[in-house]
UniProtKB/TrEMBL annotation:
UniProt protein name: Bifunctional chorismate mutase/prephenate dehydratase
Coiled coil feature spans: 7-41
Main subcellular localisation: cytoplasm
Domain Chorismate mutase: 1-96
Organism annotation: Thalassolituus pacificus
Catalytic activity: prephenate + H(+) = 3-phenylpyruvate + CO2 + H2O; chorismate = prephenate
Keyword field: Amino-acid biosynthesis, Aromatic amino acid biosynthesis, Coiled coil, Cytoplasm, Isomerase, Lyase, Multifunctional enzyme, Phenylalanine biosynthesis
């Protein structure tokens, strides 16, 4: 058999498999439509029908990765299924997702990574605006950054939870690659625009390569790219997506100081999330200003054998030198081991607020 004949046989096999895959995807989409019909059929009058279930999607993606036998990597296979699920969900209800904009930000990339490309993403000027969009019902969910592995916590996001009744219903992590962007007709760089967090994440590189150039913090990396595209002698630190959007050239790629630079984002919504089997819980605990206050907050976790994944401190809104602890820990509030822990926290806390229990990031 010749090379051409062997290739022809393989291509016919691929065509046959493509037809089967396409038929199965459409069968899945039809099932998704039936799910929507059943939910609407049994909903009470005036009841808000919830089509997107974060815990269900997390369970599906975990199963995809567990049963995957290659040669595609587990995460690559899960990303394919994420897009299939996104398109199927759009047949039930197109989701409106607010994110920290404008278009081209890492937060938009995080939104697409978590929800897929079938959602309708709407950029907002500030983190506070993302919260307001979801609180008002103009958006189903919001995506906001909460911490970076290099620069630490995003305080505006934590502070937004003080007065909000929104709940955390998911998380997504994104590897962050920063690029120095300039116009195609390169000019001497006299100022560099970027978000304050990004400037911090590239501090050593900037000190070595542009020590005397002015660094200007702006509201987002996409805004930095927009300005660099309009001004002479300006550059921006932003993503590849922002470079394409604003027609800039990547003069230096991957300039972040740490190769593992990662940002964690929270998904915020109005509904609670039921257990997925591998969850986190986030709480806000206000302690009394007295010796041993932090120990009293942490001791119930030690007693229950619960692992903390993060603890941050912010000044309280009332009382000088009073503090609020933002705590993430493993488990769901409906787990048998978590309910007694929350009772113990309520006993020792001046104020306690449950922010949400949600699936751990799958991708």
């Amino acid at each position: 058999m010749s090379e051409a004949q062997e290739l022809d046989q393989l291509r016919q096999q691929i065509d046959s498999l493509d037809q089967q895959i396409q038929d199965l995807i459409n069968q899945r989409a039809h099932c998704a439509q039936q799910v929507a019909e059943v939910k609407q059929k049994y909903a009470s009058p005036g009841e808000l029908v919830v089509f997107y279930r974060p815990e269900r999607e997390a369970q599906v993606l975990r199963k995809v990765m567990e049963r995957n036998q290659g040669p595609l990597p587990d995460e690559a296979m899960a990303r394919l299924f994420r897009e299939i699920m996104s398109q199927c969900l759009a047949l039930e209800e197109p989701l409106q997702v607010a994110y920290l904009g404008p278009e081209g930000t890492f937060t938009q990339q995080a939104a697409v990574k978590h929800f897929g490309h079938a959602v309708q993403c709407r950029g907002q000027v500030s983190i506070a605006d993302v919260f307001r969009e979801v609180e008002s019902g103009a958006a189903n969910y919001g995506v906001v950054p909460v911490e970076n592995s290099t620069e630490g916590v995003v305080t505006h996001t934590l502070d937004s939870f003080f007065d909000s009744n929104l709940q955390i219903c998911g998380e997504v992590t994104l590897r962050i690659h920063h690029h120095l962007l300039v116009k195609a007709d390169a000019e001497p760089v006299e100022r560099i625009y970027s978000h304050a967090q990004s400037l911090g994440q590239c501090r050593r590189w900037l000190d070595q390569n542009y020590p005397n150039v002015e660094r200007i913090a702006v509201s987002s990396n996409a805004e930095a790219a927009r300005r660099a595209s309009k001004e002479a002698n300006a550059a921006a630190i932003a993503s590849e997506a922002a470079a394409e959007l604003y027609q800039l050239r990547i003069q230096a790629a991957n300039i972040e100081d740490r190769p593992d630079n990662t940002t964690r984002f929270l998904i915020i919504g109005r509904q609670a999330t039921t257990p997925s089997g591998d969850d986190k819980t986030s709480v806000l605990v206000s302690s009394r200003n007295q010796p041993g206050a932090l120990y009293q907050v942490l001791e119930p976790f030690h007693k229950a054998g619960i692992s903390l994944t993060r603890i941050e401190t912010r000044p309280a809104r009332s009382g000088t030198w009073n503090y609020v602890f933002f705590i993430d820990f493993e488990g769901h509030r409906h787990d048998a081991s978590i309910a007694p822990l929350i009772d113990d926290l309520r006993d020792v806390a001046l104020d306690f607020k449950w922010l949400g229990s949600y699936p751990k990031a799958v991708l």
